[in-house]
Structure formats: structure tokens, C-alpha cells
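Notes continue from the previous slide.

Worked example: a multi-chain complex. Inputs as given:
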Amino acid sequence: MTSHEEILLALRARLVTLSAVTTGATDLSATSTGYARAAGSFLTDGFAEGMEVTPTGFTQTATGVVAANITALALPITGGRTVQAVGAGRSIACLLPTARAWENRHFVPVAGAPWVEEDYLPGPVAQVTVGPLGDVETLPQYVVKLYGLPKTGTGALYRLADALLLLFPPRLAITLTSGDVLRVCGGRNSAGESAGPAPYRSQLMQDAAGFAVVVVTIPLRVRSRNTI
Amino acid sequence: MAIFVAGLQRFRVKVGNRSRAVFTNVASAAKHSWTDGSPITASPGVPVVTANLKGSIQLTFPGPWLAHIMATGIAPDGTPVGYARDIEYNLRGANIPAGPPHGSTVGGPHAMALTVGGFRRLVAAINAETPR
């Protein structure tokens, strides 16, 4: 039978690989106001105000939040960075926020820091093929809530949500350790039938004071063999 | 030939009536799944304390083959229901008043999402139980 814990952990393992925007490995320096580069463009890369960014290859490895007035060659970070001369092979990336409210874990949002929250919905269950040991189909949903900073425009949350939808496209198949295959809904079988809608996102909404939120819903289906 | 045509006409009417019944009952079942819950979709239904949220969700038929199920944001008595969105998405939103709907012993979040996700099963169930 379906293990919801196994499904949740598989979904979470994929979620944490989310990468919305990155410079790729390149020559970067850290300044008292943020990051700088001599070639390429932070704007073209897709960085936006309000994004939490993770630096790699710098002495200061703590994440930072992108401030306003990004230019092609300068990426301002709230509070600035520890100054470091230009170096090769460094990168800056907007990944899944590091503040994560996993189900039934204590979590308190910190003002000014983007965060993410998950809801796992086990969904309805039905035997869908006849006879003994028939297929039992479960329709879970994984709901990911992306919280960002208000009054920073749409860039940060939209790009994170877009990347999340790309990470869970219709028909994506995730093989569980049990051998069951978890599939993202939205694809169609040879008869043109779909088990449910493809992943979708909400509009950007203002939530509790200090945060805007976009909710991404990922409908899923998984079949397992009945035990009798 | 006349008998065949008459039989064909009766069949057409029968199919039309049945299609109408399936459509209407699916719309009603979908609304019920959202507001009251359903074992077919696993929707928990919406929380109910004052019934304002439940009452704000309305089913209408603006066209012969068109059904709208909407959270209007206003209870039947005119009370604004500003927390409908926060309940659906299970947000910690500032719009959720102290007490209700968290005081509810029924219902829960994501009732609409689960209804949408299980819609095909809802259609199949209604189709199966509608007389042929």
C-alpha cells in the first residue's frame, strides 16, 4: 500500500533542489553593499529584489537578501557583504529559501527573510482495477507556499514559483523505494484522459504582516497493488 | 421508418435528459465537496462555526451548460468573509479572526484544491449512479 511518508520525503527531496536563478561559475567580488562583476549581467541572469541568494566560493557563505536598485554589474544585498576581491569560479544563486516550515515542525518566520512552507494532502484513495490484488490509486497533492517580502514587486516570487512549476512538470515520474511510481498530474494517457489538473500557482497575495505569498499546488497520483 | 424515427427521437430525449441530470448533479456534488466535504475527493469541507464561509460559497448556473461555484467573500447575511483565501491555502494570514474559524470541529484547509483534484472521480461517481 501507498506510504504517504515515503511520498512526502520524495517530494521534499526534489523540492530542496530548486534553483530559480544563478550566475553560474564566474568572476565575482563582494563589496560593502553587495556583489559586483565586471562582465555579464545580474539583470539578465534574472535576479530580483527580495530574492534570498546563496553565495558559493566566497569567504562569507551566509545567504543574503537582494535589495533594490540592481544593475547589470552590481547586486545590492541588504546589510552589505564582507569585502572580498574578485575571484574566479564563484557563483550566486537564488535557491529554495533556507527558512523552511516542514510539516509538524516548529517554525517561526523571521522578519525580512523569505521562507517556504509545505502542506501534504494525502488525497482520496480508490481501487481502480478489478479483482484481487488490483491497483489502488491515490491522488495526493503537495502544496508549497513561497513567502517573500512585500513591496518588492513580482520578480522574486514569480521566478521562484515558475522554477518550482518547472521542477514538477506534468508527467514527471518519481520512483519510490517501494517501486511504486509517483506521477505529477496533467499529462494524458493514450485515451486522452488525465487523472487531474497540472500543477498550478496562485496569484501573489499579501499575507500576514511582513510577507507576500504565492501558493503552488502540485496534484499527483500513485498506484500501488492492493494487498488482498 | 416512422417507428424508427420515433424511437430515435425518444433516445435523443433520453440521452439529453440524462446528460442534463449528470451535469446538474456533478455541479451540485462539486459544490457539496467544497463546502461539506466528500469521501470521493477527500475534501474535508470548509470549517464551520458561524457558517459565514460555507454560506458565502455559491453555486449558480449562468448558462445551460455552465456552472459557477464561487467563494463570493460575503455571507448570506452580508457579513464579509475576508478569511476564505487564508482557510483554503492554510495560510497563517492576518485575515483569520481570533476564534472562528479555528474553533471549528469540522472541515479544514484545501477543500477546493482537493475537490478540483478529485473532480474526475466525482464525475465518474455521479455518472455511475445516475439512472440510464
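Summary box: The radius of gyration of chain A is 21 Å. Chain A has a mean pLDDT of 95.
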